[in-house]
Design goal:
Two copies of one chain form a homodimer.
Chain A lengths: L3 H16 L8 H8 L3 H13 L4 E3 L5 E3 L9 H9 L2 H4 L17 H17 L2 H10 L7
Antiparallel strand pairs in A: 1-2
Chain B binds a DNA duplex through helix 3.
Chain lengths: ~140, ~140
DNA sequence: TCTTAAATATGATTTTTATCATGTTTTAAC
DNA sequence: GTTAAAACATGATAAAAATCATATTTAAGA
């Protein structure tokens, strides 16, 4: 479903959503430690996200990463798409090219309803929604 | 979600469900061609399934693979578990050890309902159910 | 019994994914 | 301006997954 890389990316973004803001940047190294992900690897992922402007970075001393208000309006789907591309999540469970609603493969009807609910909320719910969930105590860490 | 290997395995089993029976064995090579999977690789997967008695094999000339009536009472979950092990499907979307219903990670509540529906039907519906779906025209090939 | 066609077993290779390492650029603070 | 701390860029290595190759075992049929 999600690659390890995009799991890492999502975790990092959620971490930033909760702990960073414009005046509180966080270094790659610190994020990596907090979310239990190899740091050099995470650094690379953060750079990709930053390049796509899903997260914000500041170079030099006192620099680091944070989420701007704009950043918080992205969805986790955006995060995943940057890392995994947009095919991975959209493909059929059995990776069948020709599977679709009209000619569903045997597993399609089993998974389709549930999957589309998931995909839709991953798409529609913005990053800020998730930090709110955590603040309210409806969702939990640690990552 | 599913590894390539288990997708191949599921496809092969579905193919056998539709096209094979005791008096109609099918060679690995023919299955592979029909479902568009590299043959040597599929052969290996079929051997694992056969070893676990999810499918039936007969060696020698006129040999091949088929599904016995017993085999048809296995679920696709069984197929997947043989190939991928039983952890892969059960783990949290973000692979968080500590994520569970009481302390759900931010994505848990999003995916959990849909996922359990899927898992349950993958578990409960037997192989014969799927071949029936196809016969009835509610599900389609090609694989 | 001999030949041949199939699965089976084992291991080698390739490709992809994940991880690590190192040098370059930017910028704050002195 | 010099230094140092951070992201950024690039490439090397390692691990895992997928694929390929080859020799062995089994059993049907002549």
């Amino acid at each position: 479903m999600l690659s390890n890389s995009s799991k890492y990316a999502v975790k990092a973004v959620l971490y930033l959503a909760i702990h960073s803001h414009k005046n509180k940047k966080i270094m790659a190294k610190d994020i990596a430690e907090s979310i239990n992900v190899p740091q050099a690897y995470l650094a690379k992922l953060l750079q990709e996200l930053s390049r796509e402007e899903i997260i914000t970075s500041v170079k030099g001393p006192k620099g680091g990463f944070y989420l701007s208000d704009d950043n918080r309006n992205f969805s986790l789907m955006d995060v995943v798409n940057v890392i995994d591309g947009d095919k991975r999540l959209n493909s059929c469970v059995l990776s069948l090219e020709k599977c679709n609603a009209e000619k569903p493969c045997p597993l399609h009807n089993l998974i389709s309803p549930s999957k589309s609910v998931f995909m839709e909320s991953l798409q529609k719910k913005k990053i800020k929604y998730f930090s709110k969930q955590i603040e309210e105590g409806s969702a939990f860490l640690p990552l």
